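Why do we care about 3D structure at all? Because function follows from shape, and shape follows, mostly, from sequence. That is the central idea of this module. The next example makes it concrete: a single protein chain, its amino acid sequence, and then its structure expressed as tokens.
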Amino acid sequence: MSALDDTKEEIQEQIDRIWNSAIDFCTKILHHADVYGISLMHIPNPNVHQLERLLSLVVIPSLTQLIEEYGDLEPDHGIRLDNLRQYSLHLRNIVQAIKNESEDAFDAAVEALRREPMFPV
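And the structure:
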């Protein structure tokens, strides 16, 4: 195996780890929504605010950089990135609903996130 193949394999593994972590984040938020509801979403650690920021400010930029620098190593990487952006949008909507104390908007945003495909690799 060449050094290039080793690098591609490492990048592939890193992308898979990032993806699986993002799925874990979203799954936790859905669980927290079921357990705590809108009024207590600040209790879990990490909470929805922290996870949304992590996804928006760390996970998506990291994955974007890897894909831009090394290209799509597998055809589904672009799809995963688009899905992560969609998850982030739903999490932002959840956070906004909590700030606005809107249970209807919270329920709608949680349900939208729940409908998103989330398949770990």
